[in-house]
Specification:
alpha/beta; 21% helix
């Protein structure tokens, strides 16, 4: 299928830019100003100070943490220097409900969530958009520093006349962030643009230094929260220790709560073995962490549900596509087909089966599987089980 890359903002357009204080969003705002756009900066306020952590330990390496105040001050200073209108939008309540509570519930259910995907869908392109609307800001485009493109198909999808706004991979594949934004609805994408879509990260840093931006001297931020905050986040309920077993059910040791383990994990297991062992699966019903050798982590496919489709247009039959099972994985060819649930199975929506052309390692329930054709996302869902 052929796609048309959507035009970026032009001189005279009013553009709201989501600012984090990082180099990508900061340069995005400046580039838009330089072409003659009227730029308005907005920053999400997520941190409520309720997490019992050392506020002096981590400032700039996470999107959720006490360093937010310093980030906001840096964004405010940048906007003042550039003559931009600037707003801080409080999304704490939505973030706590949609991201933090979801994150904890998924881990406690033995799954591995991706909070950044959740945040993009419900906060950055959800609650933040609502906050902008409540400020009565009239704008042509909402822009961020994501590495992705917005495109539309030349023809309607799957025999329909619907030509939704879709997400395509960025030019810099090493920094491509399409996996993170695949759940953002097509009607929201209509007014979204990613000005860094056709730039390489090294060029972004070069320009940022050329313009003397303070953000160019910052290290790239981590996603979500620092690892040292993990215990504090889960302190609202006591962990339930249990057995660590092998595939035959032999007890190898004790775990300190299934929320502390992820599929494919090797370090920190606390068991002795003559060969390397990894987390193969997590059994929340019996409170077990199951270990196996590396080869036993390979899967031929998966079942996923909670799918999102561009324009809500679902395929009518099986499709071939490239799929990613995590951000860092390379897209691999697969066949995607409708899955008929068995009597003892329950799903949150229509499940689909993804059969890999070659086995994939450490497929983790709770993570997302995202499907690409011609580098354009044609859909994606939440992994429910491995095959």
């Amino acid at each position: 299928m052929k796609y048309i890359e959507q035009d970026l903002p032009k001189a005279g357009d009013t553009v709201v830019v989501g600012l984090s204080g990082g180099v990508d969003s900061t340069l995005t705002a400046l580039l838009l100003k330089n072409i003659g756009c009227h730029v308005i900066g907005v920053t999400m306020s997520l941190w409520d100070g309720k997490l019992d952590v050392d506020v002096n330990k981590t400032l700039h390496d996470s999107c959720y943490g006490p360093g937010e105040a310093q980030d906001i001050e840096q964004c405010r200073k940048f906007c003042e220097e550039q003559g931009f209108e600037y707003h801080v939008i409080d999304v704490k309540e939505a973030y706590h409900k949609e991201v933090l509570e979801y994150f904890k519930a998924e881990y406690r259910a033995g799954r591995t969530p991706n909070p950044c995907i959740r945040c993009n869908r419900y906060i950055k392109f959800g609650a933040l958009q609502l906050g902008i609307k409540q400020l009565d800001i009239d704008y042509d485009y909402f822009c961020t520093g994501h590495y992705a493109k917005i495109v539309r198909p030349v023809e309607g999808l799957y025999g329909t006349d619907v030509r939704p706004f879709m997400i395509s991979s960025a030019m810099d594949q090493s920094k491509d962030q399409t996996y993170f934004v695949y759940r953002v609805p097509s009607d929201v994408l209509e007014k979204v643009r990613f000005p860094l879509a056709n730039m390489e990260k090294k060029e972004v840093f070069r320009l940022a230094k050329e313009y003397g931006l303070a953000a160019a001297e910052r290290e790239e931020s981590q996603d979500f929260i620092p690892e040292e905050y993990f215990d504090a986040l889960f302190a609202d309920k006591p962990a339930v220790p249990g057995d660590i077993v092998d595939l035959d059910g032999k007890v190898l040791g004790k775990h300190r709560g299934i929320e502390h383990y992820t599929i494919g994990q090797r370090r920190g297991l606390g068991v002795s073995s003559s060969k390397p062992l990894y987390v193969h699966s997590i059994d929340p019903k019996n409170n077990l962490v199951v270990l196996a050798s590396n080869d036993d982590l390979n899967a031929d496919g998966l079942i996923a549900d909670e799918f999102v489709w561009p324009g809500n247009i679902e395929p009518k039959e099986s499709v071939e596509a490239f799929v990613k099972i995590r951000l860092a994985s390379k897209p691999v060819p697969a066949v995607i087909s409708l899955y008929e649930p068995k009597n003892d199975e329950s799903f949150k929506g229509q499940p689909w089966k993804i059969a890999f052309q070659t086995p994939q390692r450490a497929v983790a329930p709770g993570q997302s599987v995202v499907m690409y054709k011609d580098n354009v996302i044609i859909g994606g869902g939440i992994i429910s089980k491995t095959l």
